[in-house]
Structures are given as structure tokens and as C-alpha cells.
Design goal:
Structural class: mainly beta
Protein name: Lipid A 3-O-deacylase (PagL)
CATH architecture of the largest domain: Beta Barrel
Number of domains: 2
CATH class of the largest domain: Mainly Beta
Strand content: over 45%
Largest sheet: 8 strands, antiparallel, barrel
Oligomer: single chain
Number of helices: 3
CATH topology of the largest domain: Porin
Amino acid sequence: MYIYRGMLRIIILCIILGTYSIVNAQSDLKFYGVKSHYGFIIAHTPDLKPISQTNPFGLQIEISKLKTSDKAWKTCFCYGKTGFAFAYFNYANPDVLGNSYNLIYFVEPYFIYQGPLKFSLRGSIGATYLDTIFDEETNPDNLLFSTNLSFYLALSLNLNYHFNNGYAINLTANYNHISNGGQKQPNKGMNFPTLSLGVDKVIGDYKLTPKPDELKKYSTSWNYYLGGFASLRSSDREAEASNHPLFGVLGGALKPLSRINGFNLGAELWYDWSDEKRAENEGINESAFSSAITAGHHFSVGNFYFLQQFGIYITHPETLQPNDVYQRYSFWYRIANRWTIGASLIAYGRVADHMDGRLIYILE
């Protein structure tokens, strides 16, 4: 699966910037929306060109809210809305690609909100059900999808015009991505930009005003973290095979540099039973144990963290995984006191390897 790192980074930043500003506030604005989609499929590898010459279209319905109190704004220093959507996409190739049904969570921070014209950036994440997937005998051409349940990501630029207090129209450019996170092959993943036209029904007094500078305060203290992570991986990356567990531990330090930016240092260790199985099947005498040191940048706003790290292996099965360096993208959310849950994606260049779930304890 090919990963567009800049897109993923901006999506998670939007989630960080937008979500916490919509909780713990007093006044709600509610939005009910509907929009249409029309676009095209990007053939990001040559073998995808025969099945990518179509124009997907779809319909999306959504509900969202925006809160405007100082307390809500202070935690991310922005206005924004968050909500849920259901989107149907028809890929105009029923025999090979079929349709998808997507349940989506989104956040949408505003950058321009003067007068009736508003400009915003939306990050979306969710789950998708694909009704037509790869089958070696009946559908060998579908190299994009191999599991009915997959992940959905999108980044959207929105131009909103509020022509009265109750209704708004919007024109949106979307970059959509669907894949299963490297859990099963083949998994090229689909990247399909769409253009949307929609209308929103707004309930509430929609007036956004700049907030005072004294609300913008942040801590520069070091934070330290310990945690564990786990995943399931196939023992054969190119075919159907049983899944095997991966378990690991991690630790490190976070240093704020500004209100939302900081750098981090850490280390992580893990054991991958799918690599153990691969080594057994291929007659390779290598350990499935990996260890690495990490360093990178992170966004930290309220209860949310997004870490972008480079990892350098200390030990790893070199025949099974010849790369010495990897990228890791992690999203954490603090659920109670110092406990944090999250997810992480490890990638080599533009190719994603696998995702995992994380439980983190932050020491302040």
C-alpha cells in the first residue's frame, strides 16, 4: 500500500486541532448536510491502469457540531466542528471494483471565518465496507482491495458560503484513500480525488469572533512516556495466510517547543510471530525480535498527540526486512489522567507495512 505521508500528517493534525475544541463547551451549533461526489482514480502503479480508467461518484450525508466557548477554543487555539458522516461510493466498474459504504468521523478547523464566506480544512478517518474484493479465481484484476472491511482516510479543502443564518452551500475538493493497512495482500489501496457540492442546514447563531491572546498559554516541561503495542500480521505478505500476533513495548520523552509543536526521543522493542513463521517457512535462521531508537516531531494539543518519527533499527531480521530505517506515524488520545490510547502506522518510504494499537502512560 502506498502512503502519501503529507496527506496523513495533515489529516491527523486536523483531528488534533479540531476535535478537542468541540468538547467541554457551552454553546452548540448543529449542522445537517448532504453532498455529492464525482472524481477519478489515481493509478499510482502501472499495473493499476487497466482498472483505474473510471470516474467514481457518490453521495454523503452528515451531522456535526461546533462549540464557541473560550474553554473549547483554548485547548486547540482554533474554531472547528466535528461530526459523523455516511458516504456511498460507486466506482463505475461493478465487476471488478464494485461499491463502498463508509462510516466516517471528521473534524474541520476553520482558517477564514469573516462574514458569510468561510474556509476550512477537514480531516476524516473511518471504516469502509467493500462489496467487491480480490479473488484469485473470480476477481484477479482487483489489486486494490483484498478485505471487505478496510480503513478510510480523506483530506478536504472546503469553501463555505452562508447565504443566511439557516443555510450554507459548500464546494469541496477531497483526496480519499482506502486500504486495509497492510493486513492482507494484495493491498495497493485506492487513491481517488473527488469534487463535492453540498448544502448544510445550520441550527444556532453562527457568529465566530477572534479570541484574546491571553488564552494562548502552553507548558515547556519535558514529558516522559511508557507503553505497549500489539498487532496482527499475515505470515505471507503476498497471499492469504493465517494472522500472527506482534507485541512490543516503548518508552521515550516529549519536549514542547511551542503551543502545538515539539520533538521526541524514544526506543521500542517488539517480537513478531509472523516473522518467526516466515523464517520457519523459508528456512531462515533469524530472530523475529526487533529493537530501534526513534526521534521526530510531534503535535500536542489538549488531549491529542500526533508523532512523526524516524526509527533506526538496532536489531531486526535483516533477510525478512532489509530496511535499516523506517517511519512511524502515531496518533494518541489521553482518556483519563495520564493514560493514553492510540494507533500507529509503520512505513518504509512510500510503502506502509502494518498498523498497531497502543496503550501509553505519560509521566509529567
